[in-house]
Specification:
The protein is α+β, with helices and mostly antiparallel strands and about 350 residues long. The chain contains 8 helices and 14 strands. About 30% of the residues lie in helices and about 25% in strands.
C-alpha cells in the first residue's frame, strides 16, 4: 500500500490513457550533430516502443537489436521518443511511412542510444470531472510536491494487470516456481525488487508524516545521490540544505549483490526490505523526485483540468496523479476505437 506525504480527503478526478488525453514527450540528451548514427525523434500513437522498433526493423530489414532507444513509452498514448539507427540507412528512411509512426526530426550522434540516455519525460494529461474547488486543491498539492518532493514509488504498470506477476516473482525467488525463460526471470526479479522498494518507501513516508510534518525525513546513514554528478555517497552530516535546494536526494535499495547499502539508523529500516542472498545485481533508486515546470489549465465549461509537468527518467506520471488524488487507483482500460 502506497502512503502519501500529504494525506487528505481524496480528490475526485478521472483520466484515461489514450492518444488524445495522455501525451508523453521524451526529454533527450544533447546530440553531437555529427557521427555515424542517426538520431530520430519519432512520434508514435497507440503503439508500444517494441511495436515501433519492430516496424523500423521490418522496413529496413535489420535486426531490432541494431536500433537504440533510451526508454519504454506507454502504448495507450501519443508519445515522442528518440531512437538511433546507423547513418547508412538515411536514404532508405526518407521512404518510411506508417499510419501510427511519424519521424519528426533527424540529427546525428557519435554512438547509438543506450538505455537510460534521456533526461526525463514531459507529460500532458487531461483530468476529467474536476470542479473548480478541486482544481484549486490539485494545484496547491502539485506546487507543494514541486517544492518538497514526490515519493518515487514504482507505479502499478510495473506489476502487470491485477499484480499477478508479484505472486509469480515471490514464488520463483522462494524456489516454488521454475522459470526457464531468461527474460521473464529477469523481469520477475525486477518485480521482486520493486515490491521491497515500495514497501520500504511507504514506511519512510509514514515516519516523515509523523516526525517531520509531511516533509521527507532524512536519516543518519542514508545513501544520497548527487543530482549533478550522479554519484552515490553517505555523508557524515545530513545534507538537509542541499536536499531542500534539489541538489541531492536520498535513495532506496533495490536489493541484490554488489550494491551500496545504508548504514546506522537508515539501515535499521532498510534491512527489513532487503534480500542479501538475491543473486541479481542490486541498485539504488531515488526515494524522492521533484516534478518540474508544472502548468495547469482549467476548462470550466467541461470540468476538465489539463496538467503538464516534467519528471526525471524512471518516474511514473500515474504516481504523481495518485499523490494529487491522495489515493491509489488504476486507469480504466483504454476503450477500443471504432
Amino acid at each position: 500500500m502506497r502512503e502519501y506525504l500529504d494525506p487528505q480527503s481524496p480528490i475526485h478526478f478521472k483520466f484515461e490513457q489514450n492518444r488524445d488525453d495522455f501525451i508523453v514527450d521524451e526529454v533527450g540528451l544533447e546530440w553531437k550533430k555529427r557521427g555515424n548514427f542517426l538520431i530520430l525523434l519519432v512520434q508514435k500513437v497507440e503503439l508500444t516502443t517494441w511495436d515501433m522498433i519492430a516496424a523500423f526493423s521490418k522496413f529496413l530489414d535489420i535486426n531490432a537489436e541494431k536500433i537504440g532507444y533510451a526508454g519504454l513509452k506507454d502504448k495507450h498514448a501519443t508519445t515522442t521518443q528518440y531512437i538511433s539507427i546507423e547513418a547508412k540507412y538515411e536514404k532508405a528512411l526518407k521512404k518510411f511511412k506508417h499510419n501510427q509512426i511519424k519521424i519528426l526530426k533527424i540529427t546525428r550522434h557519435t554512438h547509438s542510444i543506450r538505455m537510460g540516455d534521456l533526461a526525463g519525460n514531459r507529460f500532458k494529461i487531461n483530468l476529467f470531472e474536476v470542479d473548480q474547488i478541486e482544481a484549486g486543491r490539485i494545484e496547491k498539492l502539485a506546487r507543494k510536491a514541486q517544492k518538497n518532493g514526490l515519493p518515487n514509488y514504482f507505479g502499478y504498470q510495473r506489476f502487470g494487470h491485477d499484480e499477478d506477476s508479484i505472486e509469480q516473482a515471490k514464488a520463483m525467488i522462494a524456489g516454488d516456481l521454475y522459470i526457464n525463460d531468461t527474460k521473464l526471470k529477469k523481469f520477475l526479479i525486477s518485480i521482486y525488487q520493486s515490491v521491497f522498494f515500495n514497501d520500504w518507501l511507504s514506511e519512510r513516508v509514514v515516519i516523515s508524516r509523523e516526525e517531520n510534518s509531511g516533509k521527507f525525513l532524512l536519516l543518519e546513514g542514508d545513501v544520497f545521490l548527487s543530482l549533478e554528478s550522479q554519484k552515490l555517497f553517505t555523508p557524515k552530516k545530513l545534507p538537509q540544505k542541499d536536499f531542500e535546494a534539489h541538489k541531492v536526494v536520498p535513495t532506496g535499495l533495490l536489493c541484490g549483490r554488489d550494491v551500496f547499502r545504508a548504514r546506522s539508523q537508515a539501515r535499521e529500516i532498510e534491512k527489513k526490505y532487503d534480500d542479501e542472498f538475491l543473486y541479481e545485481k542490486g541498485l539504488r533508486r531515488e526515494a524522492v523526485v521533484f516534478p518540474q515546470d508544472i502548468t495547469l489549465d482549467y476548462h470550466n465549461n467541461f470540468d476538465k483540468l489539463t496538467i503538464s509537468f516534467t519528471l526525471p527518467k524512471g518516474s511514473y506520471a500515474t504516481v504523481f496523479l495518485e499523490h494529487l488524488a491522495s489515493k491509489e487507483f488504476k486507469a480504466k482500460k483504454p476503450k477500443k476505437r471504432v
